[in-house]
Amino acid sequence: VCCKWFRWSVLPQAGTLEAEIFRDKDLKRCAVCGRVFVPKSNRGKDCPDCAASVYRRQKTESERKRRSTVDS
């Protein structure tokens, strides 16, 4: 990185740029929106924003399937 000012003032504001410069091997692209993010585990495939909506959608589908098999 070229200077201390850039490293301590500019990079923290641009989170993905900082991650690309310092943690290039830990970056992944979100399967839903395509943004770059740092996964919390090696299984992470969605950014935190999309992960919540994907989880909610999967849970809804699972509950709908479970409720459809129950006899009334």
Walkthrough of the structure:
It comes from [Clostridium] symbiosum ATCC 14940. The longest helix has 22 residues, at 48-69. A hairpin with a 6-residue loop joins β1 and β2 (36-37). This protein has one domain (4-69). The protein is rod-shaped and about 70 Å long. It has a two-stranded antiparallel sheet with strand order 1-2. The chain has 3 helices and 2 strands. With 72 residues, it is mainly alpha-helical.
Question: Quick check: average pLDDT?
Answer: 84
- Helix count equals 3
How far apart lie the N and C ends?
A: 66 Å
In the sheet with the most strands, the strands line up as: 1-2
Low-confidence stretches: none
**How many structurally independent domains?**
1
Helix share, percent: 40-55%
What does the main sheet amount to? 2 strands, antiparallel
The SSE string, one letter per element, is HHEEH
Shape: rod-shaped
Give me the Rg, rounded: 19 Å
The helix-and-strand class reads mainly alpha
Number of strands: 2
Share of β-strand residues: 5-15%
Protein name: Cysteine-rich VLP domain-containing protein
Summarize the structure.
The chain is mainly alpha-helical. Helix content is 51%, strand content 6%. It has helices at 4-10, 15-22, 48-69; strands at 28-29, 36-37.
